[in-house]
Amino acid sequence: MTRLTQQDLFGLDLELIEYNLSLVAKTNLTLKQIACQAAGLEENLFNKRTEDTLIAVVPITAGEGLINGFTQSVCSIIRYFGFKTFITEETDVSGMAEGVSKGADILFMADDNRFIAFDTRKGNVIDNAVATAFGYAAALNGMANGLAGKEVLVIGIGNVGKPAIEYFKQLKSKIAVYDINSEKIKNLSPDIHIESDLRQNLQNYKYIFEATPQGGILELKHLHSEAAIAAPGVPLGLTPEAYAVFSDKVIHEPLQIGVATMLAMALV
Ligand code: 2YG
Ligand code: MG
Description:
268 residues; alpha/beta; binds magnesium ion
């Protein structure tokens, strides 16, 4: 699980309006539309739930401890949609108890291994990795103007890449996968193509979902000239020179899509 840094999050809360416009420019979808499509939730129901849903964000000191700006960033993303949201004054178990005692319907919290939304009404847990996978896949679907029948390459079959495969199946895409560790591509469904030589064949794929913790593996000279890339992996999977050329065809940010999709999933 990649650990975000304070630098990754700097300015996020102040730039959500511009960020949303950049998403529309790339995907023809707003952050809310991406989250609702990924969660299978009607937008008007999402909007309606702002009236009856209170959300708490709980700082967690376990493990490597607090990340400066993390709970503030999560809170600002949720507030951006008009939901009443507060960061608990207490941390950890005390923070959870505080959130519940103040009537929070959903608790957002992360330790070093899991980032979850806990729905106190339904009692279920929404995982950031699954939400990030579905949200980024929905964004790529937008960039492609629909991925049905089109081929998508999923690079990195881990806790984000694997759920993304499920979402691409729902979209009826043709799926190819690559992972540096052949164990990760065992017992995938037979209709999935296993790509064995990334350097050689990357240029054949127009739609790419990069979900590895490895930075700089996608080089400019290997990319399809019209590539569209959803890159939830941190650090960024493109080399700086590839990103310079493809930046308006790349979706890559530290929290926004994952948190927005967790919220929508928790409201279904
Ligand atoms: O409450 C806090 O401030 C800390 N306990 C938060 C720790 C979060 C650690 N996890 C990560 O940094 C990422 N896995 C978060 C999700 C990244 C999504 N691409
Ligand atoms: Mg209530």
